[in-house]
Amino acid sequence: MKFTRVSNNELRAILNNACEAFISNKNDFEETASTILWLETYDFSGIDMFLNHLDQHSEYNYIQPKIIDNEHASLIIDGKYECHIFNAHLISDIACTLFKKYENEGLAIINSKNPEALVPKLIESKLFKNYLSINWMDENYLSYLFYRNENGSNLIIYKTDSELNEKYINTVVINNKNSHKNNENEIFKLNDLNKLKIINRIQPEHFRSIKQQKLMDGFYMENTKLNKLSSIANNVLVESSEKSRLGAGE
User: Fold this and answer.
1) What pTM, to 2 d.p., does this model score?
2) Of the candidates 43, 44, 42, 47, which has an alpha carbon nearest to the alpha carbon of residue 11?
3) Where does 79-220 have alpha helices with state H?
4) pLDDT tens, 7-46?
5) Distance CA 248, CA 250 (A)
6) Partner of 19 for a Cys bridge, out of 33, 132, 148, 152, CB 3.0 to 4.6 A?
7) What sign does the CA torsion over 124, 128, 129, 135 have?
8) Could you count the other beta carbons within 10 Å of the beta carbon of residue 95?
9) In a 3-state reduction of DSSP, which class is residue 189?
10) pLDDT surpassing 70 at residue 179
């Protein structure tokens, strides 16, 4: 297995072109590219998510997330299993709007896919500048808690009981306060983290150091993966011609 070193700026450019080739809408492809780059920077395998999606879908069909409950006590969004690398910016906008409108402290997303992709867009919002927690459960019954406070970003991974938590797979709970009020809707009680076994804990200094490392050293990518991504990115490049050269300075 061979690897190639790619700088942060080079990878950003490749991702922008690859996302443009697949999505075409300028605002959406730039948002998607930045989400993938954040995930790749912090070892969440954003490029794998993107390439796996392309392996399953020959073209991009946007699926609008749906608000299925917007009562003050329980804000719930149906993600419709749309990969969140494509709609994280929209989910973040919806979440911020609902939090502000209903002054709630918690919001749930059901039928979620790749929940970790929600993190970079949510932490950009001023609404969550003081506190943000995102708790989700994957298909392997691992529960993830990402939270950011005045000390920085943290990620804790827990092992859950598969039989008790089957119905909560692909569910995300977002909170903007550390001690939010108890909610009667059971979705918001994803699991009692105090009773779960911690498998891994990633603390703020790790998030800070890994970002600095990627900025300085770049990314070491498998050649096959890089070639596939570059091949997709090349689809948006204009073939050199007299007409294209005339318009190059516009």
Assistant:
1) 0.85
2) 47
3) 84-102, 119-124, 162-165, 204-217
4) 999 999 999 999 999 987 666 899 999 999 999 999 999 9
5) 6
6) 33
7) negative
8) 23
9) coil
10) no
